[in-house]
Amino acid sequence: MPHLAQVATARTAKLSDGRQLGFVEHGDSEGAPVFFCHDLFGGRGLRHPDDSILKRLGIRLIGIDRPGYGLSARKAGRDILAGAIDMDALFRAMGLERCAVLGYSAGAPYALAFAHRYPQHVSRCAVVASLPPLDQAQSFRVIHPVYGRLMQLARGNETLFRWLLRGFFFYDSQRSPEQFIRDYGGLLAQVDRHALSQLPLFNLRRDIWEEIRQVGSEGIADDLAALTRSWGFHLQALRVPVDIWWGEADVYSSPVVGKRMAELIPDAKLRLEANAGHLILFTHWEAILRQLIAPA
Fold first, then answer.
1. What is the pLDDT of residues 113-125, one digit of tens each?
2. Nearest CA to 246 among 296, 193, 192, 185?
3. CATH code: domain of residue 166
């Protein structure tokens, strides 16, 4: 059985293979537990900057570092289902009986994998602006071309991809973390750039990126490699209620992806929001959480 250790305000769980898994809790410590799976440039602390929303809703948000991010030890060659197995180990270490699970962008496949493999644990799942399955070439057409090319390289020549990513990290280490967040925002829709310009969210994303820079590129590289392989399950096999949230202005992952997911998942509800983009997680945070914990 994994055991927990306290590290400052974050915590770690020691897994059966000796690795440590980092996580942090925000909100109501006695509230409804929600596992959160972060995006590609995220980490355990990613959330809306206003924690009073969590407390008002009675939510215990448990943000988890995937292997190679933050406090979590790397696991070379991991896939999407391996992430679900790590989440199950944390679930048991925390003594939980049930939880909801929320996945954002590149974290959404991990949330779905957890719901698929451990439906007995999961009351409800929410996926927000998910990446599509990227094990087929046509999938790259429905994501931002910059990230599409990066992921195609990860799929076609992983050695070269990792070398280039390490080079980018070296280049980025010479700049301020603020510049990366500005560059990231520049690739998004206008509505997203406005959301990211709000200082609390900008500072949160900056601090998370700074931790990623300190840890290194391997976690992101492993994530991208895993995302370009089969997820290991079919969406049609999900037996948990799934909320799908998308911004119609999303240029990072097209709303077409959300519509297709809603067609495939048996018990899915699709919410397309007109005045939202890829940062819908933050602009619609309270609505997403309210629906996630609503009685069945």
1. 999 999 999 999 9
2. 192
3. 3.40.50.1820
